[in-house]
Write a structure and sequence with these properties.
CATH superfamily of the largest domain: P-loop containing nucleotide triphosphate hydrolases
Strand order of the largest sheet: 12-13-6-14-15
Number of domains: 4
Largest sheet: 5 strands, parallel
Structural class: alpha+beta
CATH topology of the largest domain: Rossmann fold
Helix content: 25-40%
Distance between the termini: 29 Å
Shape: globular
Length: 505
């Protein structure tokens, strides 16, 4: 039942829509689910019909973790067309059965009772708290209007607006501002972490809904206020400040996201007397700037150090009594299976920069998901409990160390070439398995576009193999790569194989 509940929490589907899903409704390559039908009980019989309204017919993007779980679930009943077939009937679950299972799980776990439909509300609440606008959320939920969505979740938006209504329109929470004021009054120092440089992280056209992207990488450009230019952090492309959307020509452009430059401006506004030091790739480009800046901070020439993850580790400043993490929510929910581990590590490292001298220190984490176990355990420095939680999650999803993940990556100037090469290699692997007696389990995902589909004018695809890193597996990879280099049709295609590397890009 884990795949069913996980998909519900990550999509907010209605129960009837969820139970009516077929395997053919899932597109693993594009990580999407098509919602075109719903099941309900009518006159004592289960009836499959169109969803509640025409607005409910929609396609939703789902996380890679959900795709992996659904593929795993389908492997248990490969010939059954239903995504979640009942183990007793082989057909779809009835809504009443799912409700009973849900109650039993809550009871066995010692949790308070709640309706299955409340999981849909949980999805919507978290989406709003993480910055999803009402119109987008309305489409995801299949509501007939944005007004209905707004009315339904007024309690959520009201909480989000309370601080602003009370006069706090700052990027920093009131608690963090109060603590900074206290630290500065005592002539002590503070470190603030925001792992995103630039001023705003992207700009979106409100008409065509497309971000202003790098023409070489198809990645949203980051605005840098200092030189009034948009920059690509992957290939170095820059663009002058624009007034119109490059796609449709609209002037309705909206800046979103927060970078270190914008936080620096905010700190200067809130604490005009404070001496600020910003540490990121833009300010430490010269040969000795990194060491010189740290030495100046250590000597007390600055009151607040603001930076990216370069300031999180290996620093020892006795006068630092406060560390603030402005946001790590984006890093927490990346597509890589190590995202929780990396976030936990970064938080514990940066929190350790406070109170290293004779003075006691505190650490604040500013987040939209304060109840997330990774953040709470990092704040407690509870390594043992984090390990228990993380290893249980990895086991349920069959992630390392319970398997090895090999990414075979492809890149080429022409998309047709990279698609052809990835499919040819996939077929080559199938032929190798059929011709040789392999003694390792293997599950293939893809080939599909990478998260960043194009970097520096090269299209990127990947094939993900979940297996065991044995000698036989490495022999297969060696064979595949050798055969690939012999194929003159794909001389323009670059290929690599990386075991247990970063799969989130």
């Amino acid at each position: 039942m884990l795949p069913l509940f996980f998909l519900e929490l990550t999509t907010g589907l209605r129960r009837g829509e969820l139970l009516a899903l077929l395997w053919s409704d899932l597109d693993p390559q594009n990580r999407s689910v098509s919602v075109t039908k719903s099941v309900s009980r009518l006159n004592g019989k289960l009836v499959v019909s169109q969803p509640k309204t025409q607005h409910s017919i929609r396609t939703l993007i789902v996380p890679q973790q959900a795709v992996d779980l659904l593929i795993q679930e389908h492997s248990l009943h490969p010939n059954n067309p239903y995504l979640f077939p009942s183990p007793t009937t082989g057909t779809m679950y009835s809504p009443e059965t799912v409700a009973r299972i849900h109650k039993r799980i809550l009871r066995d776990a010692g949790l308070e009772d709640c309706r299955f439909h409340d999981l849909r509300h949980t999805f919507a609440t978290v989406a709003l708290q993480n910055g999803v606008d009402i119109k987008t959320l309305s489409g995801m939920l299949g509501h007939y209007s944005s007004g209905f969505t707004l009315d339904t979740y007024t309690h959520v938006t009201r909480k989000m607006q309370e601080e602003a209504a009370e006069g706090n329109d700052s990027l920093l929470s009131r608690v963090m501002c109060d603590k900074l004021t206290e630290v500065l009054a005592k002539k002590e120092q503070a470190i603030l972490l925001l792992n995103r440089r630039g001023y705003t992280t992207y700009i979106t056209c409100m008409d065509c809904r497309q971000p202003v992207a790098c023409p070489n990488c198809n990645i949203p450009l980051t605005y840098h206020k200092k030189n009034d230019r948009y920059m690509c952090h992957y290939c170095g492309y820059t663009m002058d400040n624009i007034e119109r959307c490059p796609q449709c020509g609209s002037q309705r452009l909206k800046s979103s996201g927060v970078g270190t430059q914008r936080v620096e401006d905010e700190l200067e506004r809130l604490f005009p007397q404070a001496r600020l030091l910003r540490m990121d790739a833009d300010t430490t480009s010269s040969r000795y700037s990194y060491e010189e800046s740290f030495k100046a901070f250590e000597k007390g020439e600055y009151d607040i150090m603001l930076g990216t993850q370069m300031i999180a580790k290996g620093l020892n400043f006795p006068n630092v009594t406060m560390v603030g993490v402005i946001s790590l929510d984006k890093a927490l929910f990346t597509g890589d299976f190590r995202s929780y581990e990396r976030t936990f590590s970064l938080l514990t490292q940066v929190a350790g920069r406070s109170g290293r001298g004779d003075k006691s220190g505190v650490a604040y984490i500013q987040t939209f998901v304060p109840d997330h176990y990774v953040l709470n355990l990092a704040a407690e420095q509870n390594y043992d409990e984090f390990y228990k939680e993380e290893i249980a999650l990895r086991k349920s999803l069959t992630y390392p160390p319970f398997c090895d993940i090999c990414v075979i990556g492809f890149s080429a100037p022409l998309e047709s070439k990279v698609i052809g090469a990835s499919r040819w290699v996939t077929q080559l692997i199938k032929e190798y398995i059929s011709q040789h007696k392999v003694n390792f389990p293997l599950r293939a995902l893809g080939p599909a576009p990478c998260t960043f589909e194009m970097i520096n004018n090269r299209y990127r695809y990947r094939l993900i193999l979940k297996t065991r890193n044995t000698a036989d597996f490495r022999e297969m990879i060696k064979h595949v790569l050798g055969e690939f280099y012999k194929n003159k049709d794909y001389q323009s295609v670059r290929i690599f194989a990386d075991i247990n590397g970063d799969i989130g890009l």
